[in-house]
From TrEMBL:
Protein name as catalogued: ABC transporter permease
Ranges where the ABC transmembrane type-1 domain occurs: 18-212
Repeat in keyword set: no
Transmembrane segments: 29-48, 60-81, 87-110, 147-173, 193-216
């Protein structure tokens, strides 16, 4: 019995499902970060009054983000099946589930990073501008370093959300622990399997949250304001 809950015969299947969940969450987290972080930066720097003010672009990006975020994940997953099939070559399985997971989580991550960067002291940006720093220098050497603890916290929330979404994806053909819990725990009336799945998911979420909080505290080494502005100009 795995963890004293899971029948030994289901051990290999459980480990395979755990690996599928890790693959879905890991791949989606990487892709959402690569796309969502630039979107979050764009939402900040193109806002009215910012150094790359583009109101029209800001409204378009913000509206699209809000539309995707307001769509329940299970509906979004079904609605974009043709796109998923185009990208992944199939609409079922772990690889296919990465597509809707990524699309669903990008706007969330973008908005969370936007909120973190909006907390940066505006006077730091103004001081860097007055010293002749370029927009890229301000983003790289002032905005991102100053907002780093908040960005790490955003990544933690994103990972926790992805774990929950991956369980939902598993119920409609995505594989992973969600699929295992439904097929064996619900459809085959094996509550011990469902309980084992819940225990493992809770343990994963708690571990991710602990590690995220620790990392956010670790990177929160504020340097003096004058040094940060000078670094942006260098």
């Amino acid at each position: 019995m795995l963890f004293g809950l899971l029948p030994a015969a289901l051990g290999p299947l459980f480990l395979r499902s755990l690996g599928e969940t890790a693959t879905m969450v890991g791949a989606s987290a990487v892709l959402s970060t690569l796309i969502g972080l630039p979107l979050g930066i764009a939402l900040v720097v193109t806002a009215p009054g910012q150094f790359l003010e583009r109101p029209a672009l800001n409204r378009v990006v913000g509206t699209i983000s809000n539309l995707v975020r307001s769509t329940p994940f299970i509906i979004l997953m079904v609605a974009i099946i043709p796109f998923t099939r185009l990208v992944a070559g199939t609409s079922v399985g772990t690889t296919a589930a990465i597509v809707p997971l990524t699309i669903a989580i990008i706007p969330l991550y973008a908005r969370l990073t936007e909120a973190a960067m909006r907390e940066v002291d505006q006077s730091l940006i103004e001081a860097a501008q007055s010293m002749g720093a370029t927009p890229f220098q301000i983003i790289r050497k002032v905005l991102l370093p100053e907002a780093l603890p908040g960005i790490v916290a955003a990544q933690t929330v994103t990972l926790v959300s992805l774990i929950g979404y991956s369980a939902v994806a598993g119920t409609i053909g995505g594989g992973g622990l969600g699929d295992l819990g439904v097929r064996f725990g619900y459809q085959r009336f094996m509550p011990e399997v469902m309980l084992a799945v819940v225990v493992v998911l809770v343990a994963i979420v708690q571990s991710v949250q602990f590690l995220g909080d620790w990392t956010a505290r670790t990177v929160n080494h504020r340097i003096p304001r004058k040094r940060r502005v000078a670094r942006a100009h260098s």
